[in-house]
Design a protein that fits this description.
Layout (H helix, E strand, L loop, with lengths): L4 E3 L2 E4 L4 E6 L10 E6 L6 E6 L6 E3 L7 E5 L5 E6 L8 E7 L2 E2 L3 E6 L1
Parallel strand pairs: 2-11
Antiparallel strand pairs: 1-3, 3-8, 4-5, 4-9, 5-6, 7-8, 9-10, 9-11
Length: about 110
């Protein structure tokens, strides 16, 4: 079992920025693809961004390209999501995904 912990959500005005963090302890985690997903009320969970263990492969949802940046910490079992130019439609619970494990989620709310 891998414990995945997210932090950094909150309330921000449209056009603002937030930075999410995710940590998952353990040596095996360093070899996993890690990523962020989000789920808005009444919607299915969707991919936001993923990053490979060597950071060579990064993917983004079309809806966040150019606004969000995923990165991996120097300690490879942490990832970050820098979210700029936030829009009300970015409002959702954001989940960190590590291998087969999910965090509890962190709420991001963007007011118009």
């Amino acid at each position: 079992q891998v414990q995945v912990v997210e932090s950094g959500g909150g309330l921000v005005q449209s056009g603002g920025s937030l930075r999410l963090s995710c940590a998952a302890p353990g040596e095996t985690v360093k070899s996993y693809v890690m990523g962020w997903y989000r789920q808005a009320p009444g919607m299915e969970r969707e991919l936001v961004a993923t990053i490979s263990n060597d950071e060579d492969t990064i993917t983004y949802a079309d809806s966040v390209k150019g606004r969000f940046t995923i990165s991996r910490g120097n300690v490879k079992n942490t990832i970050f999501l820098q979210m700029n130019s936030l829009k009300p439609e970015d409002t959702a619970v954001y989940y960190c995904h590590v291998g087969a494990y999910w965090g509890q989620g962190t709420q991001v709310t963007v007011s118009s």
